[in-house]
Amino acid sequence: MPQLSRRAFAGALPLGLLGGSLLGGATIEGASALAATQVTAKSPVSVTPLAQIRIGRFTVTALTDGYADMPYDYFPGRTGAEVEQAAISQFTARQTGVRFLFNQYLIEDGERRILIDAGAAGSIGQTGQLPDALNALGLQRDQIDAVIVTHMHQDHMGGLILGGKNNFPKAELYIDRRDVTHWTDPAKRSGAPDYLQTSFKMAEEVVRLYPKLQAIDGEREIVPGVSIVDLTGHTPGHIGVRVEDGGKSMIMVSDMIFPVVHPAATDVFFLFEQDRAAAKAMRDRFFPRAASEGALIAATHMPFPGLGRVVADHGEMRWQVADWALQD
Ligand SMILES: [Zn+2]
């Protein structure tokens, strides 16, 4: 049987299926649909992306605060040229680097609303959309009962304190104690590079503005079915959140996995990682386990909605996007 490469297959398709319109029918409806398509092509409508899945009694909604392109030379362990080449081979290369999304996840069980992370809130790239995303669900920030912050990098906590205010006034706040200690330590701050200073500054504000902050020690349940998983490495107190009910589960792994470079390798890092040996150890442990369990993963910086699995494909680890719509 002749082998059909993707390119050969695409080449064999009628042009209309390759980015053209499928709606060029002769009916009046067809004509108006075609006109609508053309208008859309000229000026894309801005929509707030939302994606919902069910995990037993929980509804988990993926939201996003926005995106930023990370320069190709922000990935120690590989040269900028190597990272760019990997992006090219995955058809995701951009002039300005690797696109990182900033995804948050809202967990609801009908009684409580728990938000995982709060976004960069304009401190990096094109971000600051989380309040709009919540509004699209009919929610205000004061309706959030708890926020779990996976670690104290600016892109995960900026939304907590934007404008120098407590933006989630009713929320219990959960952060691992090792991160609270690290990011409020003046000695660590003065020894840290410039690009981490914003995170130190924000951490101080979070502690000041959230008297209800609960520092977490080790793995524990937040509410039945929602528990903290220790994923130390990316930062000292980097944590994940497992949501589990009715035989289904999902684990939000935050910065365990970055687009383009992971999970194919574990000896490639993101610039913000201060302890590379710890970051590598975390991924060396986690990727094979996730692959053998087929764990449904939610990841902050992967393409929206950040839901997927690590799969072992002929000995190579790769990211497999998970189906999420119309799956129940
Ligand atoms: Zn991050």
Describe the fold and architecture.
The chain has 328 residues and is an alpha+beta fold. Helix content is 27%, strand content 26%. It is built from 9 helices and 15 strands. It has helices at residues 6-12, 28-42, 80-89, 130-136, 154-161, 177-183, 186-190, 197-209, 276-293, and strands spanning 51-55, 58-70, 98-108, 113-116, 126-127, 146-148, 172-176, 213-216, 221-223, 226-230, 239-245, 248-254, 297-299, 307-313, 316-321. Strands 1, 2, 3, 4, 5, 6, 7 and 8 form an 8-stranded mixed β-sheet that branches. A 7-stranded mixed β-sheet has the order 9-10-11-12-13-14-15. A hairpin with a 4-residue loop joins β3 and β4 (113-116). α5 packs parallel to α8. The chain is globular and about 45 Å long. 40% of the residues are buried. The structure holds zinc ion.
Cα-atom Rg, whole angstroms? 21 Å
Note the main sheet: 8 strands, mixed
Q: Structural class of the helix and strand makeup? A: alpha+beta
Spatial shape: globular
Bound molecules: zinc ion
Element pattern in H and E: HHEEHEEEHEHEHHHEEEEEHEEE
Number of helices: 9
Assembly category: single chain
Question: Helix share of residues?
Answer: 25-40%
What's the short story on this structure?
With 328 residues, the chain is an alpha+beta fold. The protein has helices at 6-12, 28-42, 80-89, 130-136, 154-161, 177-183, 186-190, 197-209, 276-293, and strands spanning 51-55, 58-70, 98-108, 113-116, 126-127, 146-148, 172-176, 213-216, 221-223, 226-230, 239-245, 248-254, 297-299, 307-313, 316-321. The model is unreliable at 1-38 (pLDDT under 50).
